[in-house]
Amino acid sequence: MEKVRRVERVVALTKLLVDRPHHLFSLGYFSELFGAAKSTISEDILTIKQALQSFGLGTLETVSGAAGGVRYLPQQEAAAINGLLTGLAEQLKSADRIIPGGFLYMSDILFNSQLMLQIGEVFMTRFQHLAPDCVMTVETKGIPLAFATARAFNVPLVIVRRGSKVTEGPAVSINYVTGSSRRIQTMSLAKRAVPAGARVLIIDDFMKAGGTARGLVDLAQEVGAQVVGTGVLVATAEPQEKLVEDYVALLILHAVDEHTKKTDIRPALV
Amino acid sequence: MEKVRRVERVVALTKLLVDRPHHLFSLGYFSELFGAAKSTISEDILTIKQALQSFGLGTLETVSGAAGGVRYLPQQEAAAINGLLTGLAEQLKSADRIIPGGFLYMSDILFNSQLMLQIGEVFMTRFQHLAPDCVMTVETKGIPLAFATARAFNVPLVIVRRGSKVTEGPAVSINYVTGSSRRIQTMSLAKRAVPAGARVLIIDDFMKAGGTARGLVDLAQEVGAQVVGTGVLVATAEPQEKLVEDYVALLILHAVDEHTKKTDIRPALV
């Protein structure tokens, strides 16, 4: 009987931990939930950690001390990331994705929730050292990916609105110039959405010249926050000089040829 | 040694299953991944199923036959749902959420990814019998919740754009009248986003008169799809008559009093 109970406890612990990446659970919480000694829970945690690691499914981090506990870090291994991005690049090369104007139809991928949650964990792995306090994006297509990244970090998602239609109390607006088409646009952020001093990670689906990302950096500064990193799913190879200095792109779009229906997009392997 | 390996396999299986709700894994896939007989995997699955159920963490469904396998269903128990909604209502009553005009600031909740993933599982539990093929919402604030619901069902998310700015190939636009302010607005949907005949579940953050939801129903019909259900996080008690007939609201907003700073919002308990 004891053996059955242990494996059941391990299943439940695994489920609770992996469901909430970066959420710190106290051993006392688990001890009460399962009616087991903290030392028993500690042994279970060690077992789970070893199992997750040996299958490349992330790891557990134990934080000691009175405010300590254990949390799940959904770190992805390089081989898994490379496999994922290579597959994604292949998918995006499909001729029927090319839209008049030389655009790529990507919404089915951007709005695939389980895939985006995986990519969010890729960004978590890449940006973990930056310890962001929130993930910021601008509506609309990048929201699922930013949401997934915020989930992997267990930090709030901040959505900047286009235009000045914020109805959420005092807001800050800026004008910015889109890098490629050189149009002036407005974007706004509710002041209470970002605490002053916050470390902001920008996540978006696509970057061409980087005008939007540049606008987000300026907007963050306007509310007293600090952008610590920028990640995009796809960046174009041209222009090489973007309006933001540091960014991580998972896929590089080199060319879309409307006539031959060929798309040259490559994974940025790690 | 055998014992250790079994518990490690169970941990990895649990993680893989709960990470992708409604995704059907074949026993052959797991058998190859873990180098174990299908009968062994079947035993593990039974153990995991019992453990998840006994802790109220959802269940596993086994599908027999050649195209069969096993999948995780993140069903929430009534007590857990009621606890979640009661806590949420309490949070929303906070006086500092009242924005001039009698609106409630809800973005911190709507953009809390781990909370939204939970609410998405509540909607999955409520709408499971409808077997939707996709989850549809309109930008912007309902996107995280719709994303989370799409994840729980493992179906595509469809985001309808306001205005006619769709740059994703052929699109369908409709005009609709917002139920409360009686303004005429436009919304658009890329045709390729929804297959004809699809069973559509509409998810949104807020419903007052239901004009937006009504517009989504019309838009879905326009592309040959069929709305099978509508779920919103918050619906107002007034007007009682909404422009859509059937909907599920998790919280009912009865009144926001700007003077007394009191908000009357109640969970719709199951």
TrEMBL record, chains A, B:
One of its GO terms (molecular function) is DNA binding. InterPro entries: PRTase-like, PRTase_dom, Pur/Pyrimidine_PRTase, PuR_N, PurR_Bsub, WH-like_DNA-bd_sf, WH_DNA-bd_sf. Pfam families: Pribosyltran, PuR_N. It comes from the Bacteria. Homodimer. Residues 121-247 form the Phosphoribosyltransferase domain. Keywords: DNA-binding, Transcription, Transcription regulation. The lineage of its organism: Bacteria, Bacillati, Bacillota, Negativicutes, Selenomonadales. Residues 5-74 form the Bacterial purine repressor N-terminal domain. One of its GO terms (biological process) is negative regulation of purine nucleobase metabolic process. This is Purine operon repressor, PurR. Belongs to the purine/pyrimidine phosphoribosyltransferase family. PurR subfamily.
